[in-house]
């Protein structure tokens, strides 16, 4: 599928609008419309779905989302140079593309949702992890979105889907594993981007799952921050930064204390988070 609509090829769009990717904006553009269509389909049919896209750039993924049947795409773009190209897409898909010129880090995403909503994006590398953490720690939970389909550097993707005992396991893996079913859908080689990044990328799909409503996410974040703050140390030592009796935390989680954070099951972190307020 080299052409999905009547708009010009992406290389032509970028040349016309002078859209040289800016490193300071974390930009790496996707030209392959076969690939963008594949990303759009990761979470299933888009018929009747509203999609929020962050960092559309020249609109390669935007066009795929619309061509795949998204009811509406809300595209958040910080780079004013990309707005004319996105306006051309909006004209080709009347009433189905809304472009918000602004900073993705400052958006209230829940306010953009109206009906079934998914977030699908080739995230700017420099803010991708921050955005994901924000979505994973939203309250209330389950959140407004049905799913997240996001592009990351492969190293970050491995951290998101990491399990106990994995070298990549850390705070991000605990949050994602606690609140979602996360999987790597497929890898994307360097050559798919302009300019090519230094590393392989990967598309990650996350589906929210129910969690106990009376466990504040801030307590889980505090416990994981302390536990992973000194990765090479045993949790008995690293948990001391919480300023509470560590033995109480260990007892709540059924731990000996000589374990390291990356070895612990998610339930151990949750157990310590439940016990945390009572130990203060």
TrEMBL record:
- Tell me the compartments it is located in: Cytoplasm
Major localization listed first in the record, in broad terms: cytoplasm
Q: Which InterPro entries match?
A: KsgA/Erm (IPR001737), rRNA_Ade_diMease-like_C (IPR023165), rRNA_Ade_Mease_Trfase_CS (IPR020596), rRNA_Ade_methylase_Trfase_N (IPR020598), rRNA_adenine_dimethylase (IPR011530), SAM-dependent_MTases_sf (IPR029063)
- The EC category is transferase
Span of domain Ribosomal RNA adenine methylase transferase N-terminal: 35-210
Sequence positions that bind S-adenosyl-L-methionine: 28, 30, 55, 77, 103, 122
- A GO term for molecular function: RNA binding
> Highest taxon of the source?
Bacteria
**Record keywords:** Cytoplasm, Methyltransferase, RNA-binding, rRNA processing, S-adenosyl-L-methionine, Transferase
The Enzyme Commission number assigned here is 2.1.1.182
GO cellular component terms attached to this protein's record:
cytosol
Concerning its family, UniProt says: Belongs to the class I-like SAM-binding methyltransferase superfamily. rRNA adenine N(6)-methyltransferase family. RsmA subfamily.
Q: What is this protein called?
A: Ribosomal RNA small subunit methyltransferase A
Query: What's the gene?
Result: rsmA
């Amino acid at each position: 599928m080299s052409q999905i609509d009547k708009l010009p090829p992406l290389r032509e769009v970028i040349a016309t609008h002078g859209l040289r990717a800016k490193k300071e904006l974390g930009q790496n553009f996707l030209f392959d419309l076969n690939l963008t269509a594949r990303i759009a389909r990761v979470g299933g049919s888009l018929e009747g779905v509203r999609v929020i896209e962050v960092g559309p750039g020249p609109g390669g993924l935007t066009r795929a989302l619309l061509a795949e049947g998204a009811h509406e795409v809300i595209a958040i773009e910080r780079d004013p140079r990309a707005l004319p190209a996105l306006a051309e897409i909006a004209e080709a898909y009347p009433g189905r593309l809304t472009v918000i010129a602004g900073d993705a880090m400052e958006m209230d995403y829940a306010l953009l949702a109206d009906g079934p909503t998914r977030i699908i994006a080739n995230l700017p590398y420099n803010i991708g992890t921050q955005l994901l953490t924000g979505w994973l720690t939203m309250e209330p939970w389950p959140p407004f979105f049905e799913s997240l389909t996001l592009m990351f550097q492969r190293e970050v993707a491995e951290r998101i889907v990491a399990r106990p005992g994995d070298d990549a396991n850390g705070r991000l893996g605990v949050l994602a594993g606690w609140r979602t079913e996360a999987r790597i859908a497929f890898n994307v080689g360097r050559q798919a981007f302009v300019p090519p990044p230094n590393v392989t990328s990967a598309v990650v799909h996350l589906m929210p799952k129910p969690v106990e409503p009376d466990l504040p996410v801030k307590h889980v974040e505090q416990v994981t921050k302390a536990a992973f703050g000194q990765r090479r140390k045993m949790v008995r030592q690293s948990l001391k930064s919480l300023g509470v009796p560590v033995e109480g935390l260990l007892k709540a989680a059924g731990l000996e204390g000589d374990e390291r954070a990356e070895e612990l099951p998610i339930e151990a972190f949750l157990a310590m988070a439940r016990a945390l307020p009572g130990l203060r």
